């Protein structure tokens, strides 16, 4: 085997989070190597729905999402490309007066916390924003957010990272990660890589990496289902969800309509394989048609799914390892990590380079699972 | 929902022959096909074509009548007008989702024979997307189902189908204006070394010579070794210009048929993630199959041109062979016919190396000029694909994500091989190393309302 290839920071995983952290770490002066087991943006980062959404996020995520939103608005300064970013409203539609009250309560709570980006619009305003929306819809919760092209975005971060000196190696699956004599040692089938610090951004595969260094992270690989229609005349200029149902709906600039909504296909992460479950997608199709009746005439062109990592509490793991000072994690974004990519990358790089833990990422420590894992093993021992 | 012993996708020669053989061996069989009547492309509408049209289309077309009749009497369930849009493995076999006028349904089977035949190899030349430019295959479909052509076309390219259509047009009293043949002189020299073997299947050669003689008698001009072809026109085709043996030509026409061979239709075998390998002389990917046509997915057989181009006669033999193997798997004694079918297949294939060398695809269309479109749906040029290849897009799926090639309504049927070839050319890697698009369901665009009403479990 060739002698170890050394750097200051090893990033495992070439998704958006890995590429963004690698870029900012390089800008902070670290020598960075990124190892990707397949190719950059191959999985969830490249094929997600592309929502750049602050709307309806868990309160703990809102400060991080706010910070990321500021970066999205100057994304071309950051990576040198537009990334297909379109600032448009994200909308959560109410289908009844009760729904609208439910959404209004959320807006109220957000205001109480000092966040003003989510506002209620009434039936009339909803029709101005979305003329094609179904008759029964009563209003909506709206935030000025946006969407972008996920593959282009992730690749743009990778390209800029390379330009800043990051060594990105594709087709390098980390088989073994260990800490020896103050250095991290990652073995891939072709080489051994060493670095003083390591960052785990391995998405659906991150649980296995974490376990190798003694951290507990119950990552569940999932395959969120997506479909896209043939081109339709422009009728929807916002990203649309529904108050109490699962839907993510947007019309792209080329007229195609991308529809998702948290329904899951089958997944085999070891073989990079996802299978479409059309029983599930049939429900998504029904919801889409009920919210936009003109979708009855749409033709579905293609369905797909990326492999994503989901945590039991649906919140990401961001921060330092529970076991090692020099190991870090950013994964488990639970199918809503795309918008968070730029800020998470910047704050992770800051943490790794300077030791400063930004308050925006403080809530997401991996230690929250260590406690429950211990409790579980206690229970097992006593029962 | 009842489960069949065997489902067959496609009712061309391979599918019909497989169904007949499977029924003779007592298997329950469902055949799904998009067309309203059996026959596939080669025998399209054979069950209702008038005698006169049959005579005009010739003995190769009429040969399908007997097979279509045997199929009709076989006791197979024939789902006509059924478009298969998804296939899944369910542990014991396959579940096929298909669309009909009455909505989507599913059918289950223990074994599957994919008999979805060939696609015409797209021929990206300057101007090939102009109205008035179509493919030779499309012109022939018009003749089979309607019996007429509005205008005498110029036929551009090469291959047996082009000669056959030209002869059929002559017989119909509307000979082609010209044949612009893209076969370089050295191809004949290279093909000659395959001639002795090809003589084992001399029938094909005799047939080809006969076609050429008929075209000569009819006075159809044939321009050899055509290069630098341009399909000219502003809003529609006005002329075909090219160079032939050093001289420039320009033929005014409002109709042109392009053709440079056919390739296996990869959609179903790619959807099912069957292993594929590049076939050097066919210049296409073929699914890796055993001697019976079974692919790398157990229980999934490929018969006919979908397994590699061998023509209608071999397709029927291969369909029969696959069905006998399925019957054997289902507990029947091994058929003594199997060895005979294998020998017949070998004999029928003898002519292929000669034909594949002589009628190798047109070089100009294999490596299109920078501004020639390769993806018609999303209007992407060869130059854009080459540029994407350089900008860190090593594989077809990255190019697809960048440029949307393969994301349009044709789902990669038109641009797939071109994208692989351009990437291979740019990187110096083989097509096998370069790979191909991942094919995602639905195999054909599906109405959202039809999906919304799709409740397969209640069948």
Characteristic terms for this protein:
heterodimer; A: 383 residues; alpha+beta; FAD/NAD(P)-binding domain; D-Amino Acid Oxidase, Chain A, domain 2; 8-stranded mixed β-sheet; 4-stranded mixed β-sheet; 26% strand; B: 459 residues; alpha/beta; Arc Repressor Mutant, subunit A; 3 domains; 19 helices; 22 strands
Mean pLDDT of chain A: 95
CATH topology of the largest domain in chain A: FAD/NAD(P)-binding domain
Question: Helical amount among residues of chain A, as a percent range?
Answer: 25-40%
Give the class-level CATH name of the largest domain in chain B: Alpha Beta
Explain what this protein looks like in three dimensions.
The complex is a heterodimer of chains A (383) and B (459). By secondary structure, chain A is of the alpha+beta class. Chain A has two domains: 5-48 and 151-218 and 312-382, 3-Layer(bba) Sandwich (FAD/NAD(P)-binding domain), CATH 3.50.50.60; 89-144 and 224-305, D-Amino Acid Oxidase, Chain A, domain 2 (2-Layer Sandwich), CATH 3.30.9. Helix content of chain A is 31%, strand content 26%. The radius of gyration of chain A is 21 Å and the shape is globular. Chain B has three domains: 3-119 and 263-335, 3-Layer(bba) Sandwich (FAD/NAD(P)-binding domain), CATH 3.50.50; 122-260, FAD/NAD(P)-binding domain (3-Layer(bba) Sandwich); 367-434, Arc Repressor Mutant, subunit A, CATH 1.10.10. In chain B, strands 1, 2, 3, 4, 5, 6 and 19 form a seven-stranded mixed β-sheet that branches. Chain B has a five-stranded parallel β-sheet with strand order 8-15-9-10-11. A three-stranded antiparallel β-sheet of chain B has the order 12-13-14, with no helix packed on it. Chain B is of the alpha/beta class and 459 residues long. Chain B is globular and about 65 Å long. At the A-B interface, helix 7, helix 9 and strand 19 of A face helix 16, strand 22 and helix 19 of B. Strand 19 of chain A pairs antiparallel with strand 22 of chain B.
